[in-house]
Amino acid sequence: MNWRRFSLVPYRLRLLLRAAFVFLMAATVGLALSVLQQEKQLSYKNYQGSFQKTRVQVAATLRHPTGQLALLNPQPASAGKALHPLLLPFAALDFDDLQKVQQAVAMSGCLAQYGNNGSLCVGIGNNPWAGGFIYVAGTFDGAQLVPHTRGDQVVDQAHRVQVKVTLRGQTYEWIAPFEESTEPQTPGHRFGGMRGRLTGFAAADVARAKAPAVKDFRGWIWQNPRCTDQTAADDDSSCTRSAFFSLRLPVGVLQDALFEKRRPVWPPEDMDRIDVHIAVLPPGDGAPLLDSATGPSAPAFSLADLKPMLLPGESLRIRRLADSVSPAAALPPLVGPVDPEDQSWHFVTTLIRHLPVDAYDVPLEAKEVIATPAGSYEVMLKGDVRSVSKSLSVVASRLVWFVGAMLAALMLAWLVIEIGIIRRIKVLIKRADDVGERVKAAKGFSETDLADLRGEDELGVLATGLHDLLRRVREDVERENIRAEQERDMWHAVGHEIMSPLQSLMVLHGAPEDESHRYISRMQQAIRVLYGRASPSEAFQSSELQVSEIDLTAFLRNVAENASCIGIQNVVFQGPSETLTARADEYSLEDVVTHVLRNAERYRAQDSAITISLEAGDTGAAITIRNRGPRIAPDMLAKIFEYGVSDQAESGANGNRGQGLFVARTYMAKMGGTIVAQNEVDGVSFVLNLQRGA
């Protein structure tokens, strides 16, 4: 019974593969959730920053004169072309001083643009005791002003301003012709252009040619002396010049209401129903230079214009802080536009909302107090963090398709591998196990039929390759057995034939002082190593060396001096003069050095020397054999020590079987040392490391 069939070892790769697919799908989902969580955290931080920017922007806008004016006049502007007065942040306008009235309307931001070069500001003061007046200021462009002669009942031959006010069922209409002023100007308020009063007459009296001046009607007009067209001369009376005018309109209904109650209601509650019409007329019947009936070119700033500043879901509430304990009525709240949820999937939005984020549940609120001349206003801005999930879910809904596609691709790949590959591999593994059992029982390779597993697909090719591999392995084993037997017989024969004459030489040169005795002893040791062994590599690896302490200095000097005896000329020893001992087998170490010298002699440059140097270390000794010549290829530095490796194409024919350096590495290892080859700048060096002696 095969125990492997009942263990998990053959199934580890399959389990690992299935676990890998499960992990990939889980990692895909986890990665998507992690990215969503990080994006939610980042979006929330960005939303917090944007919320603070919105707060600062709204507060700065409301502190600006246009914002102050919008707070004082919270009612929205009418859709028609009617002009209604605004509550100004001043008790009154100093209408007869050009600089003061221009500065006042500029600071209040009440000027509305009419046409290209006209503007109008209509308002009332914030203090009822300044009188029930309506103030008008504006600009227009026209030719040089034509004045009206004082006392003349005909007013249509001069520039004039026509004003009409309708409120509470009554209508007030005035015509104010321009009367050039002859009064000297004060030194601090000199004006170089034309200036004069706008004397008000009731329109009905002008029509009857009996027009007394209206007592409380006041007005001034100032015209710039320079032409707006820079190409025209300033003394040309027909060129266009800009003019500024201001009016104070006495409205009897408003003045009477001030004295009806002890504490009058101010500003009037019906300001949005007070209609004012302003027209600046040239001499004659020409078209008006400025007409409020045409409507403003751009609507004035209102609190509703704050809505585009708000982020989705944010709400802005503004209420006036009354002096009394009871709170004043709050103005209509403004809510930022919210994107429709139909662009995202509901379950994605729900999932994003449940992802934990730091400080996500903390409400975002900001409160500002805006001070105005008419009182202080509390501005409350609230954020809506749900908009973060809504906006993020829109993007995440698009990514769901990609995540789903990745999961579907992983599942499909898993099914293909599981059904199309793993199931068939199981059959192939079972057949291979059966083949192994039969081979093991037969104690050798036998013919195995794998024809039913062959085919044109990948597994069929694998089965065919397995069949061919088994056949080739069987043939290679048979050939290797034959070669090993032949090699063993050859070495038996060589050892037998050499041993007999070698014993005779040993008798002839047995004296220790004989120079030939040393080399005959080395030959005898080599024959003992090889004789009776299965192969040379096995012989060298299984041989036993007699390691002892030898004098390396004397040993290497003797090798260098006698190198010429083996045909290697010009060998130089460079080493210390004192004795340096190391642990080694003298004959084996001489074989190692001789093999290295023969390699160095084979590749050295002509007439160059081979140097043998000796260096002592703390615990070892290093022998370096260096020659000048070609360098060894970097990928061959380690391979040259393997058995049978030689760079000569006919190494066997020349007696070089690629075993010299193999023998050197084997002997060095048995002596506890190492040997390495190194490329130098102009040659190659072999470094032999041995352990120091006692």
What would you note in describing this structure?
The protein is α+β, with helices and mostly antiparallel strands. Among the domains are: 80-183 and 190-301, Sandwich (Immunoglobulin-like); 547-691, Histidine kinase-like ATPase, C-terminal domain (Heat Shock Protein 90). It is 38% helix and 20% strand. The strands form 4 sheets. Strands 1, 2, 3, 4, 5, 6, 7, 8, 9, 10, 11 and 12 form a 12-stranded mixed sheet that branches. The longest helix is centred in the middle third of the chain and has 57 residues, at 386-442. The chain is elongated and about 170 Å long. The two termini are 58 Å apart. Residues 323-329 and 650-655 have low confidence and may be disordered. InterPro entries: 2C_sensor_his_kinase, HATPase_C_sf, HATPase_dom, His_kinase_dom.
Fraction of residues in β-strands: 15-25%
Largest sheet: 12 strands, mixed
Q: Which spans of ≥5 residues are poorly predicted at pLDDT below 50?
A: 323-329, 650-655
Shape: elongated
Number of helices: 13
Rg, Cα atoms, Å? 57 Å
Please give the CATH class of the domain at 80-183 and 190-301.
Mainly Beta
Q: What is the CATH topology of the domain at 80-183 and 190-301?
A: Immunoglobulin-like
End-to-end separation in angstroms reads: 58 Å
| Overall mean pLDDT | 79
Which CATH-level-2 architecture of the domain at 80-183 and 190-301?
Sandwich
User: Level of helix content?
Assistant: 25-40%
Global structural class: alpha+beta
Number of strands: 23
Enzyme class: transferase
EC number: 2.7.13.3
Keywords: Kinase, Membrane, Phosphoprotein, Transferase, Transmembrane, Transmembrane helix, Two-component regulatory system
Catalytic activity: ATP + protein L-histidine = ADP + protein N-phospho-L-histidine
